[in-house]
What does this fold into?
Amino acid sequence: MDVIKVSGSSRTSAVAGAIAGVFREHKRAEVQAIGAGAVNQAVKALVLARGYLKEDGYDVICAPEFVDVEIDGKIRTAVKLVVELRGVSSLPPEAPPTENAAE
It folds into this structure.
């Protein structure tokens, strides 16, 4: 699965369509943006894509995280937005609490 890369000049509707298309195919999408303008476009596109996917019966959420990417030999920090079905987590389940937990 390819990461959808967004710039500050990306068309919101085009990015939204890409997010929805990737999600329909893989049941997950990753969007990456560097800089305030790019993050703004990515978030607006996610709002649109969520509406498109809701029409198809998918209830999706977005989990943001930072990632380091190398561009022209330099490390930059990007915002990665992971789109997944609501209620589905890629994290391992938490261990149940024990009765004799340390206080």
In short: Residues 4-85 form a domain with the Translation Initiation Factor IF3 fold (CATH 3.30.110.20). The helical segments are 12-26, 36-55. The longest strand covers residues 60-71.
